[in-house]
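pinning this so it doesn't scroll away 📌
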Amino acid sequence: MVLNRMAKGAKEIDIAATLEHVRDQRAGAVATKQQFQFVLSAVADEVQALLKVLPQQ
């Protein structure tokens, strides 16, 4: 969801609100500290990879 928003040009992403939405849709999703850390790490890694392939301005 975060990456789709980025692809559509979103300049700011609210990770906490996104996770809250996921929790509303799927009970038990991202329930532990370790799961939350994994999600943040995965999103950060993907954002870094996307930034590397963007044209430099």
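📌 and the second one:
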Amino acid sequence: MKFKAEIDVMPLEALLDPQGKAVSNSMKNIGLPEIDGVRIGRHVRLFVEASNETEASEKVEQACKKLLANQIMESYTFHIEEA
């Protein structure tokens, strides 16, 4: 079976996010001063071939830990659905 995984990788809350800070600071310049606390990460979509959702989830977890997220600086979440 083929599964689709949607993965969000974000900087850890305890770490400075320079991109997010720059965007937060720019919000008042475009007339949106009520928006702050912006954090910028990335979104990854991938497809995985697996016999069931549990196996697909395990494979996505490995991909996140080994390649997609730097666990020292980033956290990740994902959800899987049948493609």
